[in-house]
Write a structure and sequence with these properties.
The chain is built from 8 helices and 5 strands. The protein has 200 residues and is of the alpha/beta class. Helix 6 links the parallel strand 3 and strand 4.
């Protein structure tokens, strides 16, 4: 099998760009604002709603899997209160019903109107920051009195100015933006598990 002469330099450049996307002050500044929002939601028995499209949809589901399981109740320091969280992407029949019967722009805002309450949290994930249904979900969340967090990149798009707390990855690459969002979810999960052990 012949070698791929361009792979090694491509890999080197990709890793360097990935490091640059996370090695900047914005990351700590944003996470320092996001973690207290999550901790307050847990302390007050609020629900955290996650949503996004495509790769961001999988990140939303991944967030819920990790935070609900790892960051509460399974801490090595002892059992405690778990996070209550929902990925609005995971009900595929419901999502397609909203898309077919009402419109794709309402696939997140519609369920939020039915499920969310004032004081809950909405976490919107969009690499571009301009996904119409994500923006509409945030607008509805704000109108209902939810705290809002946005994970984005590519300058932040419209999302960065709609949310209470924005994490904008300083990259114009969708791959590096989504890579960083997954790192953020793992960072938050580990921090909430280890540094802030949940207690009843």
């Amino acid at each position: 099998m012949s070698e791929l002469p361009t792979l090694a330099p491509y890999l080197k450049r990709y890793v360097e760009e990935a490091k640059a996307a996370i090695d900047a002050p914005y990351l700590l500044q944003a996470v320092e604002r996001i973690a207290p929002v999550f901790l307050r939601a847990r302390a007050e028995d609020r629900t955290i709603f996650f949503f996004g499209n495509g790769g961001s949809a999988s990140t939303a589901s991944h967030f819920v899997t990790d935070i609900a399981k790892v960051a509460g109740g399974t801490s090595p320091r002892g059992p405690g209160k778990r996070f209550r969280c929902v990925s609005l992407n995971d009900n595929v029949p419901g999502l397609t019903a909203w898309a077919n019967d009402i419109g794709y722009a309402d696939v997140f805002s519609g369920p939020l109107k039915a499920l969310a309450e004032k004081g809950d949290v909405a976490v919107a994930i969009s690499g571009s920051g301009n996904s119409t249904n994500v923006l509409e979900g945030v607008r509805v969340a704000r109108a209902m009195g939810l705290s809002t967090v946005g994970l984005t990149g590519m300058g932040g798009g419209k999302l960065k100015d709609l949310v209470d707390v924005a994490l904008v990855v300083p990259s114009n690459s969708m791959q590096h933006t989504e890579d960083t969002h997954v790192i953020v979810l793992h960072l938050l999960t580990a921090f909430l598990r280890d540094e802030q052990p949940p207690r009843d």
